Amino acid sequence: MAKLLLAGCGKMGSAMLAGWLENPYQKSDIVVIEPNGEIAQNIASRFGVATVARPD
To answer: Residue 34: which domain range?
Structure first.
């Protein structure tokens, strides 16, 4: 189960995500909710975290 859920991952969210991955979170600890498929795909490949389009 994820320890951190990030809703939206634009410029601010990406910066926060990068910082969290430095310490103390692992990639497997984080799930990003991002409805924009192109952004979600970019985030998944750039950071290696799980992404979902909706929180259900």
So the answer is: 4-52
